[in-house]
Amino acid sequence: MKRLSPTRLGIAVFAVGLLLYPLVFTNPFYLDIGVTFLLAAISASAWNIVGGYAGQISVGHSMFFGLGAYAPLLFYQLLGWPPMAGIPIGIAASVVLAIIIGMPTFRLTGHYFSMATIAVAELIRIFTGTWDFVGAAIGLQGPATARGWWDLTFRGETPYYYIFLGVLAALLFITHTIERRRFGYYLRAIKARERAARSLGVPVLQIKMQALMLSAIFTSLAGSLYAIKTGFIDPESGFGILVSVQMVIIAALGGAGTLFGPVFGALILIPLQSATNTWFGGGGSGLTYILYGGIIVLIARFEPGGLFELWHRVIAKYRSRRDAA
Amino acid sequence: MLLVQVVVGGLLLGAIYALFSSGLTLIWGMMNFINFAHGEFVMLGMYAALLVVVWLGGGPAVFGLAVALLLFFLGVAVYASLIRHVLRGPMLAQILSTFGLALLLRYTAFWIFSANFVSLPETWLSGSVDVGGIWLPIPQLIAGLLAITLTIVLHLLLTRTTVGSRLLAVSEDRTAAMLMGIRPDRMQALAWGLSASAAGIAGALMATAYPWSPSVGETFGLIAFVVVALGGFGSVPGAMYAGLIIGLIQSVSAFWLGPIYKDIVVYALFAVLLWLRPQGLMGRA
Amino acid sequence: MLLEARDVSKSFGSFRAVAGANLFIEEGEIVGLIGPNGAGKSTFFNCLAGDMPVTTGQIIFDGHDITRASPEAHARIGIGRTFQLPATFEDMTVLENVMVGAFLRYPHRDDAREHARKIIELTGLAAHASNWARSLGTPGRKRLEIARVLASKPRLMLLDESLAGLTPAELRDAISLVKRIHEMGITLVIVEHIMEVIMTLTRRVLVFNQGHVIASGKPEDVVRDPAVIAAYLGHGHVPRRG
Fold it and tell me: Model's pTM, two decimal places?
């Protein structure tokens, strides 16, 4: 039987806390923060697979989020399908897009991939804003009232909360499995030294592509969940640069390339964002984004390993001091 | 005749693209580093010009010089306080550093100047001139000609002067440069100063001819990527030709397809380029 | 014949780093590549490892043409290499580093770990197994690189100055490690500056100068070759014997 380490205990307590949260905080305001937190944690964990573990920094992941968000509402508006039916279509489109971006850029150094992701995301955002078929600048809407449970249009936030929690748990389980398998070791080797990894027989291009596709699938799913819950999507909330920024900042803040880094990043950033929006007056206030920019610069300059690494260092220092005493 | 006017207008705009993109390509060529905040430097140049004109009442010569100096010091400061420290760090830190800086500058500008479009007050530069049957606004003409001149000056500075050869020595081989008594750190700081300065002057020149808002930084940053990708990473002459080509393509596609398509065409070109010739049209294989 | 490299050239623009080099290796040999700095031996080495595409020539390994094969294909077919500047995976432990090599032959984690542990024991890294690779000094990293390659079960190992920069004691250990690897039936190509290493380990050396192989044969004969002495003198130092 495995020993119950403090880390395991902490995770268990945290998981129970997440399960009970909607029962304790029934106020819609807090429930909304909870749902937003889960969605941010899902997106950032999805980004983390390619950006954190494989070290290929995408700054345009909104392209997958947006495809996932548009597909359910588009097929609802066009054919009256339940929005859920659009999820696999969004995922398929995201995988195709991942291949289109990854194939040329993964042969080159890392900066090309970053540059390509932001340019393609912008291309799609601007194009979506001019294309009447997908609602142009106005965007798309979902069903106002549910025609049945399959529309996933609920009055309260609680059902969404548990659906999102389930998806987050599944994603973390998959990431954990990857960490323990050859694929996970290969990802870390590629991130550390691509040339050395290649010399040891790691099929670098193929592994990076698989990581990007897996990441795209879950980012797209996050987009679909967002659109189904909100019942509305426009170019800015789907493909906007700030959608990508949020994934990067949350993962980097918590610790890119660690299992729970993105979750802790979201745990800090989402309440902070909610608080700044309240203090400075809501509606995507500019000050929130100034704060984002500042946090990103500080992480890059002082703590690129994120809070997770900082925490490990503090613990190590504490232990060595205790041992010395 | 209208098409000729569109073509000339595109080339004049492209000259400004060439100037700020040569700043981006300089940094890339020297330290294999992408500055995601480069477009924001252009945007700052525009607002700096506005502030100098409004507060000090200076003419174009005054604000041009002031912006060049201001942005030079900003570039050096950014290098010394941020870039120098992340250069040897992980890739994540390298990309996030300037990406975060871009957000910081962009949204600070939104906060201070609001999202409204502004333009410089009219000066003696206003008006149009008849050049062989086509009417050209004087500000665009002067801005374009000055921009192309400055790009050439930058190229000559890099290839024909001692400072330039020192800069290139650092980009070729850091260790060898150190053995020759060159201090790479200083040269890289200088490169950031020059790069930001080029972006700032380009912004100031553009401010004389076009209205703008804080969001232009994002657009110009992406245009600079496309120009550098087309012209070859690290090549100033490449950036010059590519800048002119992109300006031309934008102008013509806005004329034929409508203004909203001018950016789409350029980004689509970038996506195609990445597939066909990732090292750039004029880049070395 | 395990490896045949015929008339291999590599040019960078107008500069010919390697100009028509030949190398034939029988299974079980240890061959040394020596030469002054910038002589082209590292470039030739990188061509053999598949890291640089050759400009002209042909490379055949165990009957397979691998001239255009990728580095990962080289590893799969059984050619492993180390790097001149140690290229360990810094944010992984010593054991994990070796496991990355072992995964090539053992796809499952437990098998790979078991094999990696054996290799770590063999290479004398057992005390550091759970330390971060970045905590090792240069000698440790060079040893880790050898261990990592060894874990991928190569038939031919290319060692790029893996024994450079060691103290006399470390050097003795390293030489005995290379001998043990050889006794396991692995063929070796060694790029090295230190003649002592070449003299003790190899039976045959190739001397590079300005992209050409200027001499080859037994190490004790080669160091007396006037062309070799001239090449080294031209670069300011004579190959030293231990």
Answer: 0.89
- The enclosing domain of B215 has a CATH number of 1.10.3470
User: B224 to chain A nearest CA, in Å?
Assistant: 11
Q: Which residues pair with B136 in a beta bridge?
A: B129
**Count of the separate structural domains present in chain B:** 1
User: Are B32 and A111 a contacting pair at CB < 8 A?
Assistant: yes
Distance from CA of C225 to the nearest CA of A (A): 35
Distances (CA, A) of C17 to B87, C49, C158, C213, C230: 30, 16, 19, 12, 19
How many interface pairs between A and B have CB atoms less than 8 angstroms apart? 140
Do residues A288 and A275 make contact, with C-beta atoms less than 8 angstroms apart? no
Distance CA B13, CA B20 (A): 11
**Which residue, C242, C175, C139, is CA-closest to C30?**
C175
Mutation target to probe the C interface, by most C beta carbons within 10 A, among A178, A199, A204, A205 is A199
Q: How many CB pairs under 8 A join A and C?
A: 73
Along the 325 residues of chain A, how does pLDDT read in single tens digits?
456 677 788 888 888 888 888 888 888 888 889 999 999 999 999 999 999 999 999 999 999 999 999 999 998 888 888 888 889 999 999 999 999 999 888 887 767 888 889 889 988 998 898 888 888 788 888 777 777 776 777 777 888 899 999 999 999 999 999 999 999 999 999 999 999 999 999 999 999 999 999 999 999 999 999 999 888 899 989 998 889 989 999 999 999 999 999 999 999 999 888 887 777 765 555 777 888 889 889 988 998 888 888 888 888 788 777 777 6
The C-alpha atoms of residue B273 and residue B268 are separated, in whole angstroms, by: 9
Its CATH architecture, for the domain A6-142+152-324, is Orthogonal Bundle (1.10)
* Contact assignment for A120 to B267 by CB distance below 8 Å: yes
Q: Which of B107, B260, B271 sits opposite A123 (nearest CB)?
A: B271
The token pair that represents A29 in the structure block = 């305001």
Residue with tokens 């984690």: C109
* B18 within 8 A of B227, measured Cβ to Cβ: yes
B184 within domain boundaries: yes
Nearest to A182 among C71, C74, C103 (CB): C103
Amino acid sitting at position B24: L
Say which of A105, A241, A293 has its CB closest to residue B100. Answer: A293
Domain ranges of chain C: 3-84+155-234
Distance from CA of A231 to the nearest CA of B (A): 27
- Tell me the pairing of strands C156-160 and C79-81: parallel
CB of C158 less than 8 A from some CB of A? no
- Asked if the Cβ–Cβ distance from B264 to A130 is below 8 Å, we say yes
